TrEMBL record:
Swiss-Prot/TrEMBL keywords: Amino-acid biosynthesis, Metal-binding, Methionine biosynthesis, Methyltransferase, Transferase, Zinc
Pfam families per UniProt: Meth_synt_1, Meth_synt_2
Listed EC numbers: 2.1.1.14
Name this protein carries in UniProt: 5-methyltetrahydropteroyltriglutamate--homocysteine S-methyltransferase
GN (gene name): metE
Amino acid sequence: MITSHILGYPRIGRARELKFALERYWASGGDQNARLLHDVRCELCMEGWDVQRAAGMDYVTVGDFSLYDHVLSTLELMGCMPVRLRQLSCDKLASYFAAARGGSAGAAMDMKKWFNTNYHYMVPEYSSGMEFDPGDGRWLAEEIDMAQAAGHRVKASILGPITLLWLGKERDGLLNRLELLPGLVDAYVHLLSLMLARGVEWIQVEEPIASLDMPDLWAGAMHAAYDVLSRRSPRLLLTSYYSFPSGCFDILCQLPVSGLHVDFTRNFRLGALRCFPRDMVLSAGAVDGRHVWSCDLSATARILDRARDMARLDDRLWVSTSCSLMHVPVDAATEAAVSMSVRPMLSFAIQKAGEVAALKIRLTHGNAGSAISHASPSRSFKPAVGFGTEDLQLTPRRKLGYADRARLQRSALGLPVLPTTTVGSFPQTPRLRQLRVLLRRGSIRLQSYMGAIRAEIEHIVRRQAELGMDVLVHGEVERGDMVEYFGESMDGFVITRHGWVQSYGSRCAKPPIIAHDVSFVRPMTLYWASYASKLTNLPMKGMVTGPTTIVCWSFARRDQSYQEVSLQVARALRLEVELLGSSGVGIIQIDEPALREGLPLQRAMRRRYLAWAADAFGVACSGTSPCVQIHTHICYSELGDVLQTMSDMDADVVSIEAARSNMSPLALLRGFHKGVGPGVFDVHSPQLPSQEAMASRITAALGIVPPENLWVNPDCGLKTRTWEQVNAALSSMRLAVDDVKERL
Ligand code: GLN
Ligand code: ZN
């Protein structure tokens, strides 16, 4: 019999219950809120298991839930929270959140993008002599007990030791974190024995490191670890995802584990299965967990059939989702407002579990009874507004090179040395959010909404002038989200009502869905940017989200290449950028914070992606005059991977996140010959940056970047800060710049 399961279920809840419970607890603490949080946790776990059971999964997945982040929860489980945060006298829950969010005991742990997704994980900190101890199995044991008590057949899920080490960083004199592996493996052995004692049949040990180009040293470590683990454990399902593990499939096949889970939806090579071991289970990640389109059951069943034959799997074939369903919303059935041309094609977590079950039925009984038709969104060609075909053939580059543009912009803008600016957004106050809710409900008229936004912009512009900023922004107060706003304003997107996915902790995003050809329909930011620019004589920087980021942070179509979709978006943005430029907005920032995130996991494919991203950016800004200064902003990046692209892109100035990583990105900027603004304070930390710290960061930057190229700005937008924090941080930033300038 074929076995069905999913790798994981969304943890935020269909009505974002986790978010609200977390925020209540953070705001007021207390035993009662802690109990409420615990109850919400139990309810969400139970609901997820019930959904899996009802859909017909043979196992329910236990262990994928987390109160903030599953990497942090694994560290807690293994008793290896960062040493610097261990001396806290507070309770377990409070110290868990102190590690995630910082507090009186010290700074939060670093946060990074999880593989090529828009989810963020907490970066483990390993120190020398670190010990691991899973105790009595902590929350995992509790959840297994809870699921079993509810009568579920349990497959436990844990992040594997190799990936857990890989994701972390060394501290306090530790030179090589692989040194810690033997101790960590012992702790896993202990944890596995606790699960064995509970009668857990299968353990999904996740090693997404296998989807990367795994260095030999780490592949060797994987072998050593699983040699030990498999001797002691119930059946291990070694699980990789986000890409078929082409580079190391042979290595995985040689591991002494009972089963392998691989992604069938990305870079899959059927032929690789020819040498699949005769004694292992193959869990086929056939239902795509990274997009929201329903699965073509017939085509997928055919591939699974061929896989079954090729590897002579018979009952050793399992059917599953490509990855955890944490990257898709909970239930497409609640999207009543989505048009009927699209709605039947949507598939969120609940529907995807259903698709896994349907595939199992097809593989068991053939095609009988499979009447549902599943199709991709149709291609509806719509010529891009305002362009002749010859325009679309233009090389996606601005007419003049950087040096010539820089000369023109210097005289057009007349900026001081070390110009200060911000990355775009100002506080999204509760009042602003409330206004948007009222507008959506129809409780206030559009005119009064717009009046309130204008008043907010006036305040933001005035404050920046008072704070001494050299280049102002309008504050992005008209947009609730930097991608959804553009999705709402262009043709081709579908906006969902409840389609939330977790970004980190309690933060969620509601990615728009690209369902048709994208085109420009009306100016999107022009009104607000030009309104703001008329309020002041200081230069105003317009704000547009870039094509790569819009596509990465949306659910894109499946029937078009990434390149086609991002070029369509870029063409629509090009009109916006052109309009902004010709209306007198002399500086325009085209944000690309998702540039690094979209990077393919395997190196061989990266060059092509980056060339497309630079082309799409070029298309977006190639319509403007060379006198208009184009900025871009990049954050959450390992900058080294995108540095060349940053300089290939047609931007004149790039702002990057730097303070949060201790200014380490500076080292890469030697030889970067354009304007650059390495952030001088971390916008995510509740601790206020001091003037001295900022001055020394600016001085450090001046050691690498020539003064005529250096900009001074925060790491990222200020929308999550309070006005009190913003006022204090920006006035210290101003003083820090003046201080450095005096010494120039
Ligand atoms: N301009 C955006 C902002 O300031 C950039 C956000 C981001 O980089 N994620 O909010
Ligand atoms: Zn940013």
